[in-house]
């Protein structure tokens, strides 16, 4: 291969990115199995979505390793193929776009439910997510057309940048919308405050990871476009999105347990004892009569009332 090519920052980066993507793909598979084990009563639509996410992630991993096979085995020793863009590498970008738009649609639906069907919050998310899909599809098409990273950078460098920027924007929009909606639903001392706090934490964690990965990939693409570090980071972006959706679904049981523990702590039975001391004021001529009182002594009548707090059970929706 040519001596002016930095193997570590090009093909080495792709290899490390493929290994990390495979590791995360295994996590996606585990999360998928956990979901079908824990939530067999979910609707067919959400089960289909989970299967589609897993299938796309598996195909994405296969395309990644297909590109590595071409670089390290098929093109071995061919200097003219160093800058070549394999079909599998280009298709992986389109698969990432499809997977991303499905995850964004899922979170847009959550915003729709939490906002009590306010389309003004959902429409911007959907529009940006669709534009992100269009950008990734166009990126794949142009890569297949030019078949060269140099040619791609020279002609449509803005296209890849636009796709990453749109992905970051929709992540920020979804995270901020869910945060404010969850925050506004809290009530002082409410029984669901602990669950809402946990949801806010999960929202920040999942949203920040995907957004950070996208931003770092965009920075590498803008600052060091001759190296393939940006593509290695792009390999794992789709895995982060798939994981964020599955983690959101699988943490419902944990949140339910948090709510149950909070409810049971306030459901302890308490007893109120009312003592009614009635002094026996009996005249001398009533002494010795069988009237149910002890002469000159007070009799305590104890009344015990058991009070039990009612518990509200809620059904999880996504």
TrEMBL record:
Transmembrane segments: 12-36, 85-107, 119-138, 158-182, 194-224, 230-249
InterPro entries from the UniProt entry: DUF6534
Domain (DUF6534) ranges: 167-253
Keywords: Membrane, Transmembrane, Transmembrane helix
The protein's name in its UniProt record: DUF6534 domain-containing protein
